[in-house]
Write a structure and sequence with these properties.
By secondary structure, the protein is mainly beta. It is built from 3 helices and 15 strands. It has one domain: 2-Layer Sandwich (Alpha-Beta Plaits). The strands form 5 sheets. A 4-stranded antiparallel beta sheet has the order 3-6-1-7, with helices on one face. A hairpin with a 2-residue loop joins strand 14 and strand 15. The radius of gyration is 19 Å and the shape is globular. The protein starts with a strand and ends with a strand.
Length: 242
């Protein structure tokens, strides 16, 4: 079995949460599957939300929703620093306030970095994805959630992998529902234990295109697998495809 592996990074990123308040737009703490499929769709030239027309899904999701991806956060312990940015939107339709000036506050991720794997199937779609990533022939410029945040894609290669056996640790993000985290009697081992956990989008529902969520986890803790599925060994890493 093969997968396409690459490093995805940027100076900043913004993966907007739909549950925002009036004053501040929040970001998810890591890239999620839907955003990653959006990047792949941009590279292939598929349409996004703005050009959905009467489709059930945006074109990128309709064509890529069956693709499996794995994400390894490269920032320490999966935590990416956040900073609130304040700026003005002064286009004429931005605000009904006097002067037409809208003050926007967004929470941006700073210096995000991930290692990403795309599970390659025996299909024309996988062949096209591989070719475009390896040659750098991107139809549209990829960005990290919004076109203010350009994406850097480096270290692209096709790697061999095999089904993981006797899994006691996972090096990527994984659905928490599929594992049992193990701790010793004192709550720690020789190395300090850490865990990043967040509800992240893993899909889109078909009626209103709202996000479908799963609680995702990234940890150095030992674990017990409930279902040995979508877990592979790649060189010295054990990754969970979602």
């Amino acid at each position: 079995m093969e997968s396409l592996r690459f490093t995805l990074s940027g100076k900043t990123a913004f993966f907007k949460k739909p549950d925002v308040n009036t004053y501040l737009y929040f970001t998810y703490g890591n890239i999620h599957k839907v955003a990653l499929l959006g990047i792949i769709g941009a590279i292939l030239g598929f349409k996004g939300y703005n050009l959905q027309d009467d489709r059930e899904y945006p074109e990128f999701y309709e064509k890529l929703k069956e693709i499996k991806v794995a994400i390894i956060p490269k920032n320490a312990q999966g935590y990416i620093s956040k900073k609130v940015q304040t700026f003005n939107n002064s286009v004429g339709y931005a605000s009904k306030e006097e002067g037409g000036n809208l003050i926007i506050k967004e929470q941006w991720l700073e210096e995000p970095n991930w290692q990403v794997f795309i599970l390659l199937e025996d299909s024309k779609l996988s062949e096209e994805i591989t070719d475009r990533f390896l040659t750098g022939r991107y139809k549209y410029i990829p960005y990290l959630g919004k076109n203010d945040h350009f994406a850097s894609i480096t270290d692209v290669e096709v790697v061999e992998m095999e089904v993981a056996a006797q899994v006691s640790k996972i090096d990527s993000l994984f659905p928490k529902e599929n594992v049992e985290l193990l701790m010793d009697d004192f709550g720690f081992e020789d190395d300090e234990q850490w865990k990043y956990e967040e509800n992240l989008p893993v899909g889109i529902e078909e009626h209103q295109n709202q996000y479908l969520f799963k609680k995702m986890c990234f940890t150095n803790m030992k674990l017990r697998i409930r279902e040995q599925k979508n877990i592979y060994s790649v060189q010295d890493k054990t990754i969970h495809f979602i």
